[in-house]
Each structure stands twice: as C-alpha cells, then as structure tokens.
Automatic annotation (TrEMBL):
Keywords of the record: Kelch repeat, Repeat, Signal
Domain of life: Bacteria
Keyword Signal (UniProt): yes
Signal sequence annotation: 1-23
Annotated segments matching region Disordered: 329-349
Stated name of the protein: Galactose oxidase-like protein
PANTHER family on file: KELCH-LIKE PROTEIN 32, LD33804P
C-alpha cells in the first residue's frame, strides 16, 4: 500500500468518525420557559417525574451596560411531559440564583445561591406531586456560597468552590459533602482541591470518582473589583484516596451546564465560556459562547471533541430527564438570557 493511499484511507476514516459523532447527536427544542427573557442561574432538576426550573435572574428592561438592573426570581415551574405546558407550581423560600442543583431519588436539592444583597447558606429539597411543590429544609452550608459546582455520588452530595459574598475578589477553595443518609451529621469539610480556588466549574460523578473541571479563579483588578482568571486544569477525587490531577481540558469551559452528563463512561462538557470574547465590543453584538462538546475518557485520561451544540447557553444546570440531557435556559451571551429549553441525546463515537 502506497503512502498516498494510506493517507487517503486515514482521512476517510477520520471523516467517517466525525460524521458518526455528528449523526449521534440528537437535540430537540422543548416548550420555552414562560418568560420572554428567560433566566440564568436557575435551579433545575426532576421530582415526581416532572422537570422543575426555579428562580434565577435576568435583566427585564435594559442590558447591564445600558444601566439595567438584575432581578432575582422565586417562581417554580414544572413541565410534566416534553410536549408541555409549563405550569407555575410554587415559590422558592426567597428569590435565589446561582446555587447548585442536584436531582436525588427524593426530589431536587437546591444548595446555596444568593441575591443582590448577599449569598445564602440555605439548602432545601423540592418535591413535586399533584401539581404542587413542597419544601424540606436540609442542613445549612458551613458558609454562604454561590457560583460553586456540585454533584451527587452514592447518596452523598459534593460541593466545591464558589464565593461567599457577591463582591468577593477571592474564590473559596472549600470542598464539602453531605451524606443524604446521615443528614443529622451535617456538611463535612473534605480536603480541598490542590488546584486554584474557583467559581463556575463543572462537576461530574462516575463510578466512585468525582470530577472537577475548569472554572475561573478570582483576583482584584486595579479598581478592587473581581476579575476572572481562566482555568483549564481538571481534577478527580476519590473518597479515602484524595485528589488527582487529570488531563487538562483542551479549552477553558467556565459556567458550562453542570453537573455534567456521563455518556458511555465519558464525562461530557457542553460549551462553556472560554474567555476569548470577554472584552468584545460592541457588547450587544457579542457572538455568544463556544458550542463545542468535549468528552473526557477516564480510562485513557484524554479529551476529545465530539460535535457542536445548536445553542450557546451557560450558567445553567444540566438535568437528566426521560433518558436525555436537558438544558433549561441560561445565559446566551453576557447580559442576555434565553427562555429556550433543549433536550439532547449525546452520542460518543
């Protein structure tokens, strides 16, 4: 076989793999959230078979660079079937956004978050049944916290990083766990990730391992305001074994939908802000965030790109519902939310 023929066959194989990956992606639009602007920083998960979306923020009148005011919400919406409709089914204890959402066997757990006045320690479970939501208080966080990452593994909820106050110029390096079978023990402080403290990371759990990926560090700028440091490192944590650095993510992915889905044993990172357009002007024409889907294979400790999303949404949860990954709204570009809700079946070649 000639070298030219070998190159031709290799090229054809790569094209087939790429087309296979693209063909296996299956994204459909669900009914849009019943708000013209949509929300970022909402809580979202599943209870009683229904998809719940609660709280979040938007700029209803003007964009932030036009002097617009960010508004926090407390409404809880439910979608019982993919065809809709969305229904208002309750209210959060207080307007809230930018906490962690974790779906458990016993409902949606909402962790921390905050509003314009400060961040919260509150943790509570939302249960949906017969068209109504009930709220159950759970042990409070050791500190007020928002913009953190979280995931559940083996009945234990894990939360990493975040900020204690809305104007903080330093992220928390904390790592906490709450055993849902032993809630009376409260949150336990675990060894922190050895990497930089961070906000808006992506977390996932798979086969006894928790993964913490990307995010942003914080520092004070020349005016003393918080400025981001874009992080591409990634880590794994095993109880009783501790932290281990894993392969660096190919590009920064801040505020990607989290907890990340696990497909065929691979951790899936959907989009995320890479910081390339952080100073883009004019702001109203910002092109949005990366749409690339990245997959991490723990077995080979490697990353790969497996396609592109039909949307650009960050600062929103990822929810597993009816065998698919749902992305309920989020931030489409800085200062602009989206009411779109996407449901995807992700294939890994």
């Amino acid at each position: 076989m000639t070298a030219a023929l070998m190159r031709s066959l290799l090229s054809a194989t790569l094209i087939m793999v790429t087309l296979t990956a693209a063909a296996e992606e299956d994204w459909t639009a669900l009914p849009t959230l019943p708000d013209a602007e949509g929300f970022a920083g909402s809580f979202a998960g599943v209870s009683g078979g229904a998809l719940l979306v609660a709280g979040g923020t938007n700029f209803p009148d003007k964009r932030p660079w036009e002097g617009g005011t960010k508004i926090w919400y407390d409404t809880i919406y439910a979608l019982e079937e993919p065809e809709g409709p969305w229904m208002k089914v309750g209210q959060l204890p207080t307007p809230n956004g930018y906490g962690v959402s974790i779906t458990t066997e016993d409902g949606l757990v909402c962790i921390g978050g905050g509003d314009a006045g400060g961040n919260f320690r509150d943790v509570f479970r939302l249960r949906y049944a017969d068209g109504k939501v009930t709220t159950q208080a759970l042990p409070m966080l050791p500190k007020a916290c928002a913009f953190m990452a979280g995931a559940e593994m083996g009945g234990v909820m894990y939360v990493a990083g975040g900020i204690e106050t809305p104007t903080a110029t330093k992220a928390l390096g904390t790592f906490w766990a709450l055993d849902l079978k032993k809630v009376d023990l409260g949150w336990q402080e675990l060894p922190p990730c050895p990497g930089p403290a961070r906000i808006l990371a992506t977390m996932a759990a798979h086969e006894g391992v928790v993964y913490l990926i990307s995010g942003a560090g914080l520092k004070a700028d020349a005016e003393g305001k918080p400025a981001r440091e874009w992080l591409s490192d990634a880590w794994s944590f095993q109880p009783n074994q501790g932290w281990k650095k894993i392969a660096t993510i190919p590009r920064v992915a801040v505020a990607a939908p989290s907890p990340a889905s696990v497909v065929d044993g691979q951790i899936i990172v959907l989009g995320g802000d890479d910081g390339v357009n952080v100073n883009f002007e004019p702001k109203e024409k910002h092109p949005g965030f990366p749409r690339e889907i990245l997959a991490y294979d723990p077995g080979s400790d490697t990353w790969s790109g497996i396609g592109d999303l039909p949307f650009s949404l960050v600062t929103t949860p990822a929810v597993e519902w009816k065998g698919r990954t749902v992305i309920p709204g989020g931030e489409a570009r800085p200062g602009k939310r989206s009411p779109a809700v996407w449901s995807g079946k992700i294939g890994v070649p």
